[in-house]
Amino acid sequence: MSGGVAITLFFVAILVAVLIHELGHLLAAKAFGMRADRYFVGFGPTLYSRQVGETEYGLKLFPLGGFVTIRGMGDFDERRQPVYDALKPHLDDSPKDQISSAYGDQMDVLLKERGVSQVVRERIRRRLDAFNGADQQALSTHGPDGRDRYITEVLTTEIGASNRVGDLAWRVFHGDEQRFYSDRPAWQRAVSVAIGPATHLVVAFGLLFFAYITFTLPTAEPSQTVATVVDDSPAQLAGLAVGDTITQVGGETVDTFTATRELIRAKPNQPLVFDVRRQGQSVTLTITPNAVVDEATGETIGVAGFLPAPRERKLLFSESVITAARGSDLHPMGGVTPMVNASVRGIISIFSPSGLASLVSTSVGGQERDPDGAVSVIGVASLAGQTANSGTNGVFALLFLIAYVNVFLFIFNLLPLPPFDGGHLAVLSIEKVGTLWRRRTGRLGVFRVDPRVITSVAIPVFAVLLVVLVATVWLDIRNPLSFS
């Protein structure tokens, strides 16, 4: 895997994670009957879109994220009327014994935007056309307002009755009544907002679990394979090489490093014959361990001068779940929980007054960059590219990096400031507490946070984010971080 491929995979993975985030908002809003008009991938001019139900799904020119539009989160969103009410002006212009073509066309448009399928719309149109050909006797069965009753009957028959807020029949007969974000109970709004950031946590856990259950990983147990050979040691002088697997020592078959070490310790200054496997071939070496004094016991022991690689294995299902959730002794940062803790500490450090001052001074001055400091998406992509030359370990490192970014996005989106999702949750909490206080003090009405207050908070937040973005991008271009 090349560095370019690793960087591409990183950006695709983050884009997919963001789209899952927005999909979480969309599905939750729909489940609670809210009106969600659009779900788009990217920003800018629209390349493709398709109406499915009442929601428009599409792709825009710049695939730099995605968005979902939920009505009622803005102050100027207009409500849709019930279909019949919206068509009333057209109906009044038609003769009492007819349904004009213009009226039928307008009904088709309104039914389509509410998600009524083409098949059902065509059936409704045919039945409305049949009304025009009916004789007066047939019309009289519907009373003096025969046409109005007939239309209601057709819509009810073809679409059915409503079972919950936001279903197809509700959208036709009630429009946007109780369907705006601001109409729904606070807990439903909170779930619709919080589920977006929560998807990042699920994605991170899923990536870590997949990595642990798929790839062989080092354990605490040493193997018979040589990982390090000390310079000028007896092992190096005898020709022992990294990657050799020791099979016999002094004529004895060994299958654990403990057995190998004991045989070496017992032969200070005495030649030992080693049989090793090297690239599929059998090689015989003679190593004379140096004599050294064991500080723990005071006895003289033999030391050959090499270290073993740890044994590797795949984690079991239960081990993968636990490690992905909370890490382990060998992978202390390899779980969602320690990643959350590290992300919280990092955000507090970066956005503290001293952290912001240090970031700005480092970007404009000549100070050495803090390897644990802020990094832009360009810097993280660079780190992703550095995983390319590590084989299987590189794939694991890339998955780990993507998981960590997702955990960071989870925490970052929950910051209790607008325009983050956490800002919406903070507003909901303030309004809930304010409403309860109103009731406790005997006042009526629901407490609402003034949108101007939200805007006044959002502007300086945007300004700080812009400073951090510019500073980190500049640092990542001038002095990029590396895993080393």
Question: Helices and strands in order, then pairings?
Answer:
Blueprint: H1 3-31, E1 36-52, E2 55-70, H2 83-92, H3 101-113, H4 118-132, H5 136-140, H6 146-159, H7 168-173, H8 186-214, E3 217-229, H9 234-238, E4 245-249, E5 252-253, H10 257-265, E6 272-278, E7 281-287, E8 290-293, E9 300-303, E10 306-313, H11 317-326, H12 336-351, H13 353-364, H14 377-386, H15 391-413, H16 421-440, H17 451-478
Antiparallel strand pairs: 1-2, 3-10, 4-5, 4-6, 6-7, 8-9
Helix pairs in contact: 1-8, 1-14, 1-15, 2-3, 3-4, 4-6, 8-11, 8-15, 8-16, 12-13, 12-15, 13-17, 14-15
Describe the structure.
The chain is α+β, with helices and mostly antiparallel strands and 484 residues long. It has 3 domains: 83-175; 219-313, Pdz3 Domain (Roll); 317-478, no CATH class. 52% of the residues lie in helices and 17% in strands. Helix 1 runs antiparallel to helix 8, helix 3 runs antiparallel to helix 4 (118-132) and helix 8 (186-214) packs antiparallel against helix 15 (391-413).
